[in-house]
Design a protein that fits this description.
Strands 3, 4, 5, 6 and 7 form a five-stranded mixed sheet that branches. It contains 34 helices and seven strands. β4, α24 and β5 form a beta-alpha-beta unit. α8 packs across α10 and α31 packs across α33. The radius of gyration is 36 Å and the shape is elongated. With 788 residues, it is mainly alpha-helical.
Length: 788
């Protein structure tokens, strides 16, 4: 029936429910009892039909009727594989056809799931094995043409299993009739044509045998008679001259069916949940030993969370199906845990091993509670083990992304199941997506919602190893480029400007295409010299910054930093190209010229941006110094070295040099300063640090061995920085000094422990500092020094 409510012989008064009427549930149960009695009652002429209601939810213990919502809830929470297969045959026979249509629509996702893991093959095989062992009587397994070996049920199980696996995504496989479906399975290459032909031939033969058996006394039987005379009679009814020929043909068909069934559906020899104790009560010690052996620190808490995962909250009753799925899923979590033998196999890379199983299990519990539909969630994960693994790794690798995922759980599923995680996107692709929201009333929210989705996609690609570290930086930079370009288009659209009013140029990591998790965007705004009204452009730049940087319920998209402009915070937000040149030539300090080695036009008026890049190239070519240039002096290399020394002393926390992977001795800034100094010395216009370092190979400044040493060390340390920043999405540059979180960072970086991690990091930093010192110690000495 359609909904809960009440039935009255007379309509109750308006606004009153007297309570005298039956509930819909009571009424329709009584109605069903009357209907069943009428159809199946024994009359002088015999009975009409036998009514079998055992396939209803909860079988003989369940109510005869339910509302649509009752069926939906039951199948979502309690539905099992055999019920999916049973419902494939469902169709409207009598009664309210519109209501039947609603019912079939309601159960459609259950009987034709979009995705279902191949574990269903083992479940169906186990089901058939139980039928042979528990339902059939002794000696019937070879004589029962329906339930026995190679019988009708095996053909049906093959068809229905293929439907469960494929029909949710391929609608042409949806249907209830066996023979037409066998043709479709062959047509669409799901099964070999030879197999479907053999199955169809066997199906027709065995159905004929079944009909002949049941016609004898009009009773439900599927077992061949043991009496020789009865078997001879059956053979003649099947148009065989003798029972021996009939038995030979039947054996040929059943053997063919069994062979195909055996290839497709086999009960697993062992199950992954066999290592788990069967219950919790009385087995606590075994559970604790299991958890402790898999890296859990707070074993008591982990045991409680494991019990919750398996059995759910105490106030809910779980179906056996949900319990079974939980027992299948939990070993997959254990497979990712840091056991001693797995730790020994780590080789300094970001492997799939959990750094903090306790935290992951707690996160998993919080997520499942927030999601609510535990049975549906387990079903999805069991059908897509890689999706479950992805959630576990996400909880372990990024606190920031995990928070977003818990708030929007469908986002992770959609990214994985749609295949979008396998796609690398350029800035143009992202900008095209952003433009779909150009008419959105709240551009700040649109930008942030899209930005979060893209961050999740990029972060998950990184976590799964679908993109290497350089690709990861490229994709994060492409997202930043697209957001800046889109913000410029929004401002143009709002103010009805025909052309971009100025160029947005990137410096630092943005200029070098090296945006990392949580990076700020260093920008400057440059206008063409012909601009008419410079003051009117200032609020437009502020508007762009607010579009991306102002705080909303979705946080910020990117923090923009425009303090690298001439005169810093005191200077104009937007200035002309000529004003930039005048400043850089006459008033800029050396560090400001050094920053121009990493300039890149990103958005807006790109013609002006290219002119700015050419200006920067002239100003930063110290092999042919552009005059006048106040910042250029003979000891410019010494000045850069002294600047590096100040950074190391002033920005490295006291006593934590060994943890300061950016500012400390042999940190990332060493490599960045080498790259920038070499760009200045040789006049290279290369904003990307790694590519600038690679240009040192083959140069007369460093040997290839030293260049390789520098590049290898830089890449290793930068990868550690990325893993560190991915966790919190803030600009973390110092490793934790607490042993526990430092150990977790070590595992995320692919090391078996803190000692091996810090030893490898120390070696990389030492190698990097050695090359840094070679570069800056080989700078030209002042003339007085050379004479001395």
């Amino acid at each position: 029936y359609d909904d809960e409510g009440h039935v009255f012989k007379q309509a109750p008064r308006k606004g009153k429910l007297t309570g005298k009427g039956l509930s819909n549930h009571q009424f329709f149960n009584r109605f069903a009892e009357s209907f069943i009695a009428e159809i199946s009652r024994l009359a002088p002429e015999g009975s009409l039909y036998r009514i079998d209601l055992r396939l209803r939810p909860e079988g003989d213990a369940g109510p005869l009727t339910r509302s649509l919502a009752g069926y939906e809830n039951y199948y979502a929470q309690w539905g099992q594989t055999w019920e999916r297969m049973m419902l494939i045959k469902a169709r409207c026979v009598a009664g309210d056809r519109a209501l039947a249509g609603e019912f079939l629509e309601t159960i459609h996702p259950f009987r034709y799931p979009r995705s279902l893991g191949e574990r269903v093959l083992h479940e169906v095989a186990a089901m058939k094995q139980r039928i042979e062992e528990e339902v059939l009587k002794a000696g019937e397994v070879e004589r029962n043409v329906k339930l026995g070996r190679g019988g009708i049920r095996e053909i049906e199980f093959i068809i229905q299993t293929m439907q469960l696996l494929h029909a949710g995504r391929q609608p042409f496989l949806q249907g209830a009739q066996s023979l037409p479906l066998l043709e479709k399975l062959a047509q669409y290459k799901i099964l070999p044509e030879e197999d479907t032909h053999r199955l169809a031939e066997a199906y027709r033969f065995l159905r004929q045998v079944e009909h002949r058996l049941q016609m004898e006394d009009d009773r439900q039987t599927h077992t061949l008679p043991q009496d020789k005379r009865a078997l001879e009679r059956l053979a003649r009814l099947m148009r065989f001259p003798a029972a021996t020929e009939f038995e030979t043909e039947r054996a040929r068909h059943t053997a063919g069916v069994r062979a195909i069934y055996g290839r497709l559906l086999q009960a697993p020899e062992s199950r992954p949940d066999e290592l788990l104790p069967r219950d919790f009560e009385g087995h606590e010690t075994r559970w604790k030993e299991l958890l402790a052996g898999h890296g859990f620190q707070d074993v008591e808490k982990a045991l409680n969370l494991t019990r919750m995962f398996m059995q759910g909250p105490g106030y809910l009753h779980f179906s056996s199906r949900t319990l079974e799925l939980a027992r299948l899923l939990f070993p997959k979590l254990l497979e990712l845990c840091p056991t001693p033998d797995r730790l020994e196999k780590l080789a300094g890379d970001d492997h799939k091993i959990l750094s903090d199983p306790d935290r992951v299990l707690a996160r998993l519990d919080s997520f499942i509670r927030a999601y609510g539909a535990r049975a549906t969630l387990y079903e999805t994960w069991a059908g897509n083990p890689t999706l479950f693994e992805l959630w576990l790794l996400l909880f372990d690798r990024s606190e920031y992304l995990a928070e977003i995922a818990i708030r929007t759980p469908d986002l992770v599923d959609e990214l994985e199941l749609s295949g979008r995680l396998r796609r690398q996107k350029a800035a143009g692709d992202t900008l095209a997506d952003l433009r779909y929201g150009l008419e959105d009333k709240d551009q700040r929210l649109w930008l942030r919602r899209y930005h979060q989705t893209e961050l999740m996609r990029i972060g998950l690609r990184d976590i799964l190893g679908l993109a290497d570290f350089e690709q990861n930086l490229d994709e994060l930079t492409a997202l930043a480029d697209a957001c800046l370009a889109y913000a410029m288009e929004v401002v143009q659209h709002r103010h009805r400007l025909k052309a971009p009013p100025f160029c947005v140029a990137g410096l630092g990591k943005l200029g070098g295409r090296e945006i990392n998790y949580g990076s700020d965007l260093d920008v400057v705004f440059i206008a063409d010299a012909k601009v008419g009204d410079l003051p009117k452009l200032q609020p437009l730049a502020t508007e762009i910054m607010q579009l991306l940087s102002s705080t909303t319920e979705y946080g910020v998209a990117f923090q923009l930093d425009a303090r690298l402009r001439p005169d810093g915070e005191k200077g104009l937000m937007v200035n002309t190209l000529a004003a930039y040149e005048e400043y850089y030539r006459h008033r800029a300090m050396l560090w400001e010229i050094q920053s121009l080695t990493r300039v890149r036009a990103v958005a807006g008026d790109l013609k002006t941006g290219r002119a700015f890049e050419k200006l920067a190239a002239r100003l930063t070519n110290f092999s042919k110094p552009s005059r006048p240039l106040a910042a250029f002096t003979g000891d410019w290399m010494a000045q850069i070295a002294r600047m590096r020394e100040r950074i190391e002393k002033e920005r490295t926390p006291a006593g934590k040099d060994h943890l300061a992977i950016k500012t400390g001795c042999g940190g990332l800034i060493d490599a960045e300063f080498v790259a920038q100094a070499m760009c200045l010395r040789h006049g290279w216009q290369e904003a990307n640090t790694l590519r600038a370092l690679e240009r040192l190979r083959g140069s007369d400044h460093l040997s290839d061995r030293n260049a390789d040493q520098l590049i290898t060390s830089y890449r290793k340390i930068r990868r550690i920085e990325g893993i560190l920043r991915r966790w919190s999405f803030v600009g973390e540059t110092v490793l934790p000094d607490d042993p526990a979180p430092l150990h977790r960072v070590a595992l995320r970086c692919g090391f078996e422990g803190t000692d091996s991690f810090m030893k490898a990091l120390g070696a990389s930093r030492q190698a990097l500092r050695q090359v840094y010192e070679k570069v800056f110690d080989s700078r030209p000495k002042p003339a007085r020094s050379r004479k001395k």
